[in-house]
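Write out the bound-state structure for MU-OXO-diiron.
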Amino acid sequence: MLDAKVAELLNDQINKEFYSAYLYLDFSVYYSEQGLDGFANWYKVQAQEERDHAMLFLQYMQNNDCPVTLEAIAKPDKEFSSFADPLNAGYEHEQYVTDLIHTIYEAAAEVKDYRTMQFLDWFVKEQGEEETNASELIRKFDLFGSDPRSLYLLDSELSSRTYSAPSLTL
Ligand code: FEO
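---
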């Protein structure tokens, strides 16, 4: 049986990951409506990955005979006034999620829950990659976003992102 605090944080994380999926789907809708289908695709794939993260937390809890409570998913409340806004919001959001993962890790370490720590190792690495991806998007947009021709090429590049299932299986 998992420690009560660890279980509560894991359960919360299911909701946070589904919210992340919802948030990135909102970004995707925004870009689609702006005619930037490559950016829209990039965030749609990201939303799928976030859904997978939620399912991994859920499965981990079930594998450990831990009751799961699904809570309401908040409405994404972002207002965008420029193409750069979702990119910046996405990077900030990933930093926030990294903090959440680290908090669960610390709670697991405190009660010597090595199994949960090992499970979370994958997410610690994943967050590093996601922060890098998010900041690279900002860097590229800063370099090329103000020139329509370059923006078109960047959008084309982002349209090639495809979904693949997570490397972690439970
Ligand atoms: Fe599942 Fe991007 O954090």
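---
The first helix runs from residue 4 to 33.
The chain has one domain: 4-71+83-158.
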